[in-house]
Amino acid sequence: MNAPQKEIHPFADAIHSFCIFADMKRIMTYILLIAVMTGCSAGRTAKIEKAITEGDSLFAAKRYTEAMIEYSEAERLASANDDHFALGRIYRAMAHISNATYGYADEIGYLRLASDEFGKAGKPYNSTHVEFEKGLAYYNSQDYASAEKVYRDVLYKAHESADTLLEAQCLSAYAALSLEVNRPDPSLAIDMLSRVANELKCPLTSADRGMLAYAYSLAGMHEEADEWVRKALQTAATPAETAQARFREYQIRSRSGADAAALDALEEVMDYSNSVEMASLRKSVVTSRQDYLDKQHELTRSRLSTARLMTAFIILIFLAVTFALTGYLRYRKLESEKLLAEEKSETEKYMTIAEELQTKLRSATKRLPSEKHTAIAKYDLLERLCEQYYIYEGTDNLQGRILKEVKSVIDGLRVDPKALKGLEMMLDRNCNNIVARLREQMPKLKPDDVKLFIFAASGFSSTTISTILEKDKGVVYNRIWRLKGKISSSEAPDKDDFLDVVNA
Predict the structure, then answer these.
(1) 11-146 in CATH: which number?
(2) What angle do CA 27, 30, 33 make, to 5 degrees?
(3) CATH code 3.40.50 for 163-272
(4) Is 163-272 in the same CATH topology as 11-146?
(5) Residue 211: CB partners within 8 Å, gap ≥ 6?
(6) What is the percent of the chain with per-residue pLDDT over 90, rounded to a whole number?
(7) What is the dihedral of CA 415, 416, 420, 425, to 10 degrees?
(8) What burial class does residue 478 get, using C-beta atoms within 10 Å of its C-beta: 0-12 exposed, 13-18 middle, 19+ buried?
(9) Which of 408, 367, 411, 412 has its CA nearest to residue 385?
(10) What is the pLDDT of residues 475-491, one digit of tens each?
(11) What is the secondary structure of 187-252 as a DSSP string?
(12) How many angstroms separate the Cα of 484 from the Cα of each of 23, 340, 453, 499?
């Protein structure tokens, strides 16, 4: 049986030949060459590790844009050094940034690269963990078929390699998947999470407890569902975990018919969701990486010879001036167009509101008895707007006058308590004390909700209300929807009357 061959350095054979056929001067030259190359390689490795470490620190501090730039520098160095293991770590880190900024498509792409590089480096453990993260990315992007395929493969590899933690994580992810498909399988979810706790002896997370609660609810085991959702809320350590647990509570309460409790849970989830700025985060990170790549391209060009560099510099100055001038002129044009568009949009918005208010006043004048018409006429802000229509209708000054008056109406309703009180009095006179009854029968209602009720009951559109409150239309719509829910779930004797005037 032949003895195993020892691995020989690429230059060792050459040195052996030199020992026999060459003089000591040439031998020493070759040894020096090996030392220099080894030192250069060590220096490049140190730079790669420094860039990765700096990127990790920035990522931990949630400075994602700066972290992406550091990782991109590390990628450049590792590619030049042909360091596959480092490249695998770098692409995995870039995937984590994409996940943190909700760029799941980019995350999947980076994880594929990481898995390939770990495979080239002979690191199956790292490759399997990356594959699991890819399954999570597929799940987050709602590609459930791909996620399930990945989970099955990872579960087998984790079990074979006795990687208990990875197996537990994969079972938990698989349980979540079994509850998301068109035909959920609560029994499978309960079984998988039970294996995590009982067989693998791994503690259940707040998310696991929430899933278990929802699974028991789907299975008709309501007491168990209540118990586990309570545990999920108790163990939630972050706002995100709390929102996740509250969403499971909403799912459970809505199934059981507890509409008020479901509404409260959903409101908390929506409040957390509205605080997350996904699109802007993702844009900044993607842009930063592209900026880095552009800078690296310019750096490479700067390493030309002196003569070519001077020529390129002169051309660059000329182009920079040209581009700057062109960019400035384009910027001025775009700013001018933007300003005109904003002015046009604002004009159209206020004219629409003015027409709405004027129409309501005219229709009220036609259909109300004289004593009620007097009550409306005494509401000075709206009456003044109507007068402007009568005076300037059909003239060139109509739009300017109306814009001025409608802005005054809006400002009055926003900041003047007397103006709002006048609108409330008008509603009470013409709608059988509707606001007074609301205040009496629902005393715990917030002042902002009462104000919103007054505007909605007056027949103002969501556009008008959003302008008065200086809130986005979507926010106003959600607040009206929540107000209806509070009224509907209350014990107020006249809640049907309240809902009728809001819905009208």
Answers:
(1) 1.25.40.10
(2) 150
(3) no
(4) yes
(5) 172, 175, 176, 179, 189, 193, 248
(6) 28
(7) 170
(8) middle
(9) 408
(10) 888 888 888 888 989 89
(11) HHHHHHHHIIIIIS--PPPHHHHHHHHHHHHHTT-HHHHHHHHHHHHHH--SHHHHHHHHHHHHHH
(12) 97, 38, 9, 7
Position 349, amino acid: K
Which class for 267: exposed (0-12), middle (13-18), buried (19 or more C-beta within 10 A)? Answer: middle
Task: Say how far apart CA 356 and CA 161 lie, in whole Å.
Answer: 71
pLDDT tens digits, 336-373: 677 666 656 666 665 666 566 555 544 444 444 443 33
The tokens for 121 are: 């480096």
Query: Which pair of structure tokens corresponds to residue 378?
Result: 């005494």
Q: Is 192 exposed, middle or buried (0-12, 13-18, 19+ CB in 10 A)?
A: buried
CATH number of 431-504: 1.10.10
Q: Which amino acid is at 401?
A: R
Instruction: Domain ranges for the chain, please list them.
Output: 11-146, 163-272, 431-504
More confident residue, 258 or 456: 456
Give the span between the Cα atoms of 282 and 271, in whole angstroms: 21
Residue tagged 């979507």 (tokens): 474
